[in-house]
Amino acid sequence: EIRLADALERVKPSATIAVTTKAAELKSAGHDVIGLGAGEPDFDTPDNIKEAAIRAIREGKTKYTPADGLPELKQAICGKFLRENGLTYKPSQVHVAPGGKPVIYNALVATLNPGDEVIVPAPYWVSYPEMVLMAGGEPVIAPCGPNTQYKLTPDALEAAITPRTRWIILNSPSNPTGAAYTKAELRGLADVLLRHPQVWILTDDMYEHLVYDGFEYWTIAQVEPALYDRTLTMNGVSKAYAMTGWRIGYAAGPEKLIKAMGKVISQTTSNPSSISQYAAIEALNGPQDFLEPRRKVYQERRDMVVAGLNKCEGLHCPTPEGAFYVYPSCAGVIGKTAPSGKVIENDEDFATELLETEKVAVVFGAAFGMSPAFRVSYATSTEALTQALIRIERFCAALK
Ligand code: PLP
């Protein structure tokens, strides 16, 4: 029998991918399933971006590139950071990898030693604690409940820091809650971080472009320039540009860190697809006008989903600032009995019964480290969302 790595023993498979797979299985077995599990835009990649990729293929730009990205793409990324975030980076401060996920992983592998701690505010994106574990570190979960709109407060940050803390991972807007930090809230966290020079900041800004109601987006190195030298500002084209399958993520930070990450990528995946890199150059340098109408559609869907969920007996759904997720509490249904006869003891039971009874797939809150709640992705058609809300309301009303 195969012997597996001890480090992997501690790691959980991705619950979001598991739910998406289960929903797809039910669908292919002929069930009318509505999947609200996947964190993927339903929009298509814009045509100018696709054309740039086709051009790259025709022109034979199909060879290896530098492992951590083409110089032209790094230049485009520097342009993006300056234009949108007021942050000045040189191409030598930029790392490109096959998606945002490996960017984070490369940063952790490049910096963590056994016993090093990484603060992960909960609810968290499922991959953060697992990637920390795979890189040999210790995730330190900082719970951020509905009372603070699922956001880390300066006091909670201060309490989580120890002499072994190497990183704090910030994610605004957040997957899974949609919560985004205001400039003032980031200021409060920055003041704490200024007092702890051993702590580096990994900010995952993947959902930057998806903010609503005129929310003003800020990233921490912009709020506090004194943190620039220990911040890795991470982003990618997957969500904003509807390019999840192209696999391009990037980050910028201090040269020494970027160089170490370059070493990791050069001995593992090597460069992301050259074709995708040319597409990403077009995404960042090309017209940005399609972002606004898409943002408006997401905002309308968010409003519809929040209103619909708040009509359901036993659910309570806050209105988040961004991303394409909401994170309703299902505390009011715990202890009730589902039509199948099963007593709903936790959020995983709720999600399982909802999928089996009404064929609506959501991801249970325990996967994100905060229960009882669940994540709904509204990156899906308005018609599907309307139907899903009818089913969720019917399911909740049927609980006894
Ligand atoms: N960071 C967050 C918060 C995400 O939600 C995701 C995708 O789900 C990623 C990073 C990874 O994105 P990519 O698909 O580019 O690896």
From TrEMBL:
Its EC number is 2.6.1.-. Residues 32-389 form the Aminotransferase class I/classII large domain. The keyword Electron transport does not apply. Gene3D superfamilies: Aspartate Aminotransferase, domain 1, Type I PLP-dependent aspartate aminotransferase-like (Major domain). Keywords: Aminotransferase, Pyridoxal phosphate, Transferase. One of its GO terms (molecular function) is L-aspartate:2-oxoglutarate aminotransferase activity. GO terms for biological process: amino acid metabolic process. It catalyses: L-aspartate + 2-oxoglutarate = oxaloacetate + L-glutamate. It comes from Hyphomonas oceanitis SCH89. The keyword DNA damage does not apply. Homodimer. InterPro entries: Aminotransferase_I/II_large (IPR004839), AspAT/PAT-like (IPR050596), NHTrfase_class1_PyrdxlP-BS (IPR004838), PyrdxlP-dep_Trfase (IPR015424), PyrdxlP-dep_Trfase_major (IPR015421), PyrdxlP-dep_Trfase_small (IPR015422). This is Aminotransferase. It is an enzyme of class 2 (transferase). Belongs to the class-I pyridoxal-phosphate-dependent aminotransferase family. Its cofactor is pyridoxal 5'-phosphate.
